[in-house]
Amino acid sequence: MKFDTNCLHAGYKPAGGEPRNIPIIQSTTFRYETSEDMGKLFDLEASGYFYTRLQNPTSDAVAARLCALEGGTAAMLLSSGQAANFFAIFNIASAGDHIVSSASIYGGTYNLFAVTMKRMGISFTFVSPDASEEELAKAMQPNTKALFGETIANPALTVLDIERFAKVAHAHGVPLIVDNTFATPYLCRPFEWGADIVTHSTTKYLDGHAAAVGGAIVDSGNFDWDRYSDKFPGLTTPDDSYHGVTYTKKFGLEGAYITKATVQLMRDFGSTPAPMNSWLLGMGMETLPLRMQKHCANALAVAKFLQGHPNVSWVHYAGLEGDQYYDLAQKYLPKGCCGVVSFGVKGGRSGAERFMAKLELCSIATHVADAKTCVLHPASATHRQMNDEELLAAGVGPDLVRLSVGIEDVNDLIADLARALED
Ligand SMILES: *Cc1c(COP(=O)(O)O)cnc(C)c1O
């Protein structure tokens, strides 16, 4: 089936007399006839539901839908995007290991990597999203376990050269993990360009209505863990906590990574989505193509308006001709560059704050990428833990305003912006 059809139908096919919508299975537990039947589940000898911390039918149906949209082989939902990025890396790296990440990433992810995971003994080297193959190769170490970047970075709106990052990752025998939150699979499918694992904050466009925090991990099934067995023993050697199961042997390259993340990390950390939230996500995904088309068209019109305004010092939107990332966007994002536009208001930090206070329709919110237009000043919110040097490396200046253009009538949005930009 084509993408738009999968948005509505993938992951759930009701039999005669069953609910047309994905049912919300609001149950923590599932009943079995005998202890032996249940024991098989605990040994990973049989598949089935027993406790919602590990798996739930509603969440699995929605994960399967997203898996189809990304073109992957296995997927899981989590309680947040933060949990998704943590699991995606911790599934293949532990104390003593090293990750190379683009510096142009979401502030929360930067904090997770540079502060919290560092405390767990995992070190990170941050590189420019524009790094050449040589520069990327120089950052790789013998203990490097993955390369990480965001398709369209939040909030700097840099566009990742996925093919280049994948090439260097694979030359060093490690996977490329791409956070595809802003692009969504409607605008870009990173697996088609060589990425091995995709993560999402489903809180954003996939849900689309600012209704539920959530995350997801999708595996392409393409990375050959067995070929680099010495680097990824957790996937390729027996797991004592499941009577010696070897994930790549038992679940194949298509299922090993997600199975391990589910039965080890979800079991132990419990970042489980509520079935109701998974259901809201599934509902949101039904209209993803329609919403993304309008987000992209509105954002391009707003970006052009801002570019022509005398009180705006600069505009970043990869869909604008002349933008530094225009050519990469033409390649990776031919259908549009999502709804997020960043720009600088003349007058620096205080100019940005004055502008924000005057907005009426666009609401100030620590949120982005949903149907209603919202606006944020990252230097005083999501990125406030960074010093000026780190802010610059992440591409987030003190005057930067992040505008998440919704699906309202674009004339109302432009009128609100014009009023707030008046002297
Ligand atoms: C929001 C966001 C996250 C974190 O997701 P939560 O759902 O808020 O935990 C991670 N990556 C990107 C690109 C994001 O925009």
Poorly predicted tracts of residues:
none
For the record, the CATH architecture of the largest domain stands as 3-Layer(aba) Sandwich
Structural class: alpha/beta
Q: How many helix segments?
A: 16
CATH homologous superfamily caption of the largest domain: Type I PLP-dependent aspartate aminotransferase-like (Major domain)
Order of helices and strands: HHHEHEHEHEHEHEEHHHHEHEHEEHEH
Residue share in β-strands: 5-15%
What's the total count of β strands? 12
The major sheet is characterized as:
7 strands, mixed
Q: In the CATH scheme, what's the topology name of the largest domain? A: Aspartate Aminotransferase, domain 2
What this model shows, in words?
This protein has 423 residues and is α/β, with parallel strands linked by helices. It has two domains: 3-283, Type I PLP-dependent aspartate aminotransferase-like (Major domain) (Aspartate Aminotransferase, domain 2, 3-Layer(aba) Sandwich), CATH 3.40.640.10; 289-421, Aspartate Aminotransferase, domain 1, CATH 3.90.1150.10. Helix content is 40%, strand content 13%. It is built from 16 helices and twelve strands. The chain has a seven-stranded mixed β-sheet, sandwiched between helices. Helix 7 links the parallel strand 4 (144-150) and strand 5 (176-179). The mean pLDDT is 95.
